[in-house]
Design a protein that fits this description.
The chain is 53% helix and 0% strand. It is mainly alpha-helical. It has 2 domains: 95 residues, Cytochrome Bc1 Complex, Chain D, domain 2 (Orthogonal Bundle); 82 residues, Cytochrome c-like domain (Cytochrome Bc1 Complex, Chain D, domain 2, Orthogonal Bundle), CATH 1.10.760.10. Helix 6 crosses helix 9. The longest helix has 14 residues. It is globular and about 50 Å long. It binds heme C (HEC) (2 copies). One heme C (HEC) binds next to helix 7 and helix 8.
């Protein structure tokens, strides 16, 4: 249960919410052509449409590039992105990165349990805040997790816990420490805390 996979949910919801797009007229043809593909799942300006497709607007540029390269090479697990990323060159990743990382961060309105989020905040301060600052000045080391899709966050955490994503060793050790000292319900509280930023 704890480590239940959500890949199929993500796969299904990503396709379910695909939307036709003809926005981005203000961009150069090269930029619109490249990012139009992404917008089908990640929404106009990276604000993602499906409940489990990550919001990519306002990601940090080095981390955006790292994510694309790691999913392309298969080092980082993915349901869809590995295949998609294989279709592009590193130069094209740079153009996409310039576009999405300059978009305003979006926080997804999703159902949360306020009591769980309150407990999750304390856990976050104890275990995660050192690297993932949410309240106060943001931390360059990580992407913004406030308002990210909760099923996506859960999926990512499970990838680290299960040792499927070796690209960020600090996450493996941080979560090991967390799990040693906390229950499944605490894990859930943490995710509700991230989701509570809307
Ligand atoms: C068919 C839907 C779909 C399309 C099209 C798509 N993505 Fe994704 N994207 C996903 C899903 C789902 C994930 C989560 C990883 C996975 O399971 O593949 C993801 C993850 C990502 C991430 C990682 C975010 C993070 O926080 O680490 C980045 C970056 C990204 N996509 C960029 C892009 C770009 C750039 C394009 C256009 C070339 C694109 N995506 C096209 C569905 C899509
Ligand atoms: C020692 C620093 C450090 C600590 C502590 C830490 N993280 Fe991370 N975390 C990172 C780095 C670096 C990344 C990779 C960059 C990124 O994706 O933001 C990352 C990635 C993530 C991701 C994937 C983000 C994405 O967009 O795919 C999630 C989710 C996450 N961390 C949650 C947590 C949680 C929850 C905790 C506390 C239990 C925690 N982290 C503790 C450094 C840390």
């Amino acid at each position: 249960m704890y480590y239940q996979r959500l890949k199929y949910t993500i796969l299904f919801s990503a396709w379910l919410f695909i939307q036709p797009v003809n926005a981005l007229q203000t961009q150069t043809p090269q930029v619109s052509m490249l990012v139009n593909t992404c917008v089908a799942c990640h929404g106009i300006n990276g604000s993602s449409v499906g409940p489990a497709t990550p919001i990519i607007a306002g990601m940090r540029k080095p981390l955006f590039l790292k994510a694309m390269r790691d999913m392309k090479s298969g080092k980082r697990p993915s349901t869809l992105m590995g295949l998609i990323a294989k279709g592009y060159t590193d130069h094209e990743f740079q153009i996409m990165a310039d576009f999405f990382t300059q978009q305003k961060i979006v926080r997804y309105p999703q159902p949360v349990d306020k009591e769980k989020a309150r407990r999750g905040r304390l856990l976050h301060n104890l275990y995660c805040n050192g690297c993932h600052k949410i309240e106060g000045p943001s931390e360059l080391l990580s992407n913004n997790l406030a308002g990210q899709k909760m099923p996506y966050i859960r999926q990512r955490l499970l990838e680290f816990i299960n040792g499927e994503d070796p690209t960020t060793p600090v996450m493996e050790s941080s979560l090991k420490h967390f799990i040693q000292n906390n229950s499944e319900s605490d894990f859930d509280d943490l995710i509700h805390y991230f989701g509570s930023h809307q």
